[in-house]
Amino acid sequence: MRKVYLDNAATTPVSDEVIESMVKNLKQTFGNPSSSHHFGREAKGQLEEARRKIATAIHAKPSQICFTSCGTESNNSVLKNAFQSLQIERILVSPIEHPSIHATIKEVAQDIEIVYLPIDKFGSILTDSLEKLLSEGNKKTLVSVMHANNEVGALNDIETICKISKKYNAFVHSDMVQTMGHLPLNMEALGIDFVAASAHKFHGPKGVGFLYIKNPNCLKPFISGGSQERGMRSGTENMASIIGMSVALEHAVKNIADDEAYVNNLRKSMAEKLGNTILDIEIITNLENSLYTVLTIGFPEIMSNDMLTFQLDMKGIACSSGSACSSGANKGSHVLEALNYPKERKAIRFSFSKFNKMDEIEYAVEKIVELYTETVK
Predict the structure, then answer these.
(1) To the nearest 10°, the Cα dihedral for 270, 272, 273, 275?
(2) Between the CA atoms of 100, 101, 102 and 107, what dihedral angle is there, to the nearest 10 degrees?
(3) Which residue of the set 70, 162, 218, 325 is catalytic?
(4) How many CB atoms within 10 Å of residue 332?
(5) Can you give the pTM of this predicted structure?
(6) Fewest CB atoms less than 10 Å from the CB: which of 72, 117, 237, 255?
(7) For the chain, what is the mean pLDDT?
């Protein structure tokens, strides 16, 4: 039976050029980049070249890039430091952030005012409400809003969010795990303070990411005990993965416009075919204002059961129900709850990459319709 991978928002296939770069590094450059001899200096050179490539890809300075293990670590590092280092008194956050945001805030912001920003019916924050909240009072504020939601693809106008926030001297942090390498990003133009990214979302390896920090000296070290990452994150760097990440991002930003057009065509084709074939299906994702890699669909009640993703898997379709980061949890999606989505209807996320083909979409639609037909008999 054919297997179709439509869970790219969870993780993407590692591209050939990334694998080649990692294998080459592992074979030829095994030195510790903190060592002062030839082998160490060679490794250090490659490490800093990777940092430069990543900075160039997002219009930042190399000194503003700190390597981490993933987006979750990057988010934790900002939030756990910001309240102490920046004397934050209030945080404005969307109700559908990644759990690494919500859980961390609850853990460290016990004496901080937490305000959940209003969102529209698709999940994007209302920027007018953001400005109103920022204009009320003079507390030192951190705004934390993800660029695109990982479950439904809702996009936030990060440029407007940054402009409004700076008008009121608020710091801005954004989880850009889903948009890094998929949308054009210019850190210098945005003036944003903190950005989290993870390599495995743009065809790089798992277990490596980075944190962009506009003013690197504004935060205290995340991990102490060494001089790595300019003293911010001590510990020997994951060299091969960092090299792979830099190659992945460099390749991703070269063809963003073409990739967006291609992938969005796959997404809209699937939405149209399913919408025309299955009665009472609901397209939850706003196709006109969302990240083009994500399509979340609400299935009819007759198909809505806890086994639906397993049934789809048995048909050869890999997809997700809710976030992959919390797939083992019994609790329902906080994102769908915030959107007031009916609990009796099952929502499934299909997510795409440039490696998907139209015949895979057609196969997936065929099998979903087949499952629907079997269910209604």
Answers:
(1) 110
(2) 80
(3) 325
(4) 13
(5) 0.94
(6) 255
(7) 93
Mean pLDDT of 337-348: 90
CATH architecture of 4-13+255-376: Alpha-Beta Complex (3.90)
pLDDT digits over 38-73, tens only?
999 999 999 999 999 999 999 999 999 999 999 999
Lowest-confidence pick of 21-25, 209-213, 217-221, 251-255: 217-221
Whether 218 is a known active-site residue: answer no
Collapse the DSSP code of 317 into the 3-class scheme (helix H, G, I; strand E, B; otherwise coil) and give the result: strand
Which regions of the chain does DSSP assign to beta strands (E)? 4-5, 65-68, 90-93, 113-116, 141-144, 171-175, 194-198, 209-213, 282-283, 294-298, 317-318, 347-351
Nearest to 344 by CA among 336, 355, 352: 336
Q: Can you tell me which residue has the tokens 């390599």?
A: 199
3-state helix, strand, coil in the chain (%, to 5): 45, 15, 40
Residue 329 has pLDDT above 50, yes or no: no
Please give the Cα distance from 164 to 145 (Å, whole number): 13
- 92 forms beta bridges with 115, 143
CATH topology of domain 16-254: Aspartate Aminotransferase; domain 2 (3.40.640)
C-alpha span between 217 and 220 (Å, rounded): 7
Q: Averaged over 15-38, what is the pLDDT?
A: 95
Phi, psi of 44 (to 5 degrees): -60, -40
Instruction: Output the pLDDT for position 331.
Output: 63
> Domain locations in the chain?
4-13+255-376, 16-254
At residue 283, the pLDDT reads 95
